[in-house]
Amino acid sequence: MTDGPDNLILLYLRRIDEKVDRIAEDVQDLKVRVTAIEGRLGIMTTEIAAMSLRLDRLEKRVERIERRMGLAGAA
For the chain, which has fewer Cβ within 10 Å, the N-terminal or C-terminal residue? Predict the structure, then answer.
């Protein structure tokens, strides 16, 4: 009779262990995916900074052209 409850407890412990293993695998998968997202976000941030720099340079060029053409006060 004592084998019954022990076996039942072992059965539940094994099920819990399997579920914990699945959760650990899911968490590992999520870590990999978050790392990939962070990498892409870093690349996008760098690209946005580069575009901002290019726009700043274009703005200066347009201002210089407007001054040379006498259009600086017209806008």
Answer: N
Are residues 27 and 36 in contact, defined by beta-carbon separation less than 8 angstroms? no
* pLDDT number for residue 44: 98
Report domain extents, the chain.
25-60
Q: Is the dihedral of CA 12, 13, 16, 22 positive or negative?
A: negative
Which tokens belong to 73? 């006060």
Give the separation between CA 58 and CA 44, rounded to whole angstroms: 21
In angstroms, the CA 53 to CA 55 distance is 5
- Amino acid code (one letter) for 37: I
Instruction: Please provide residue 71's backbone torsions phi and psi, each rounded to the nearest 5 degrees.
Output: -105, 5
Residue 67 contacts residue 75 (beta carbons within 8 Å): no
What is the distance between the alpha carbons of residues 34 and 39, in angstroms, rounded to a whole number? 9
